[in-house]
Design a protein that fits this description.
The chain is α+β, with helices and mostly antiparallel strands and 205 residues long. The protein has helices at 8-19, 65-71, 103-126, 190-202, and strands spanning 55-56, 60-61, 79-86, 92-99, 130-140, 146-155, 160-170, 173-182. It has a single domain, classed as Protein Transport Mog1p, Chain A, CATH 3.40.1000. Helices cover 27% and strands 30% of the residues. Strands 1, 2, 3, 4, 5, 6, 7 and 8 form an eight-stranded antiparallel β-sheet that branches. Helix 1 (8-19) packs across helix 2.
């Protein structure tokens, strides 16, 4: 799996979505100027891996492949940037910052993305040879709020992957953080991921 992320199911579904025409532009037409960019997580701010340091990629315009299947259509109209993180083993993560510029629109986008996580799990569960289960890990009292989700996938060929996803907001900016590796819900570092999410939202301003 590219970017060392074991959760190959999401990448495969993202490729299928792109093939079907869900291609995302890096920025909306006419975006000649950009407000000061919100800050991204550092590698050291990800949930600690027991046997490998995190390595942070460069900040890039657009939406990472791993998020396009779940969020592609919801993000088409927005200016977004992302950073990918990896370990030397099977764990990977992404952070996406979406600059909306208007607090009301950002609130609406965050609410939609929270719903899209659940819809995405439902779509995966409906796919042949795949089972997917969703869990909510509640909200966080940071800035304008954040919500943490989890889902596990099991494929008929034996692959088992666990993901944590959070959506948070500060003013006119929304951030999405996604973490994934082999395993099930028992392998998810929920407490550490909630801390990572709080840090990510605090760094937006």
């Amino acid at each position: 799996m590219s970017k060392r992320i074991r959760a190959g199911l999401l990448a495969a579904l993202a490729v299928a979505a792109l093939t079907a025409g869900a291609t995302l532009s890096a920025a909306p037409a006419g975006a000649a100027t950009r407000a000061p960019a919100p800050k991204f997580l550092a590698a050291s701010e990800l949930p600690p891996h027991p046997s490998s340091d995190w390595i942070a990629g460069r900040v890039t315009d657009g939406v990472p492949d791993e998020m396009q299947y779940c969020f592609g259509e919801a993000l088409l109209a927005y200016d977004s940037r992302y950073r990918t993180f990896r370990t030397d083993l099977d764990t990977g993560a992404e952070q996406l910052n979406v600059t909306v510029g208007d607090s009301a629109k950002a609130k609406a986008l965050a609410a939609r993305l929270d719903k899209e996580v659940k819809r995405c799990v439902q779509r995966m569960d409906a796919a042949p040879d795949v089972e997917a289960d969703y869990r909510s890990y509640g909200t966080l009292p940071v800035e304008e709020g954040a919500r943490v989700h989890g889902f596990a996938t099991r494929a008929s060929w034996g692959a088992m992957d666990i993901h944590l996803v959070s959506v948070g907001r500060d003013g006119g900016t929304v951030t999405v953080v996604q973490w994934g590796q082999m395993g099930d819900f028992g392998d998810a570092p929920v407490k550490a991921f909630r801390k990572t999410t709080t840090t990510a939202v605090n760094k937006l301003h």
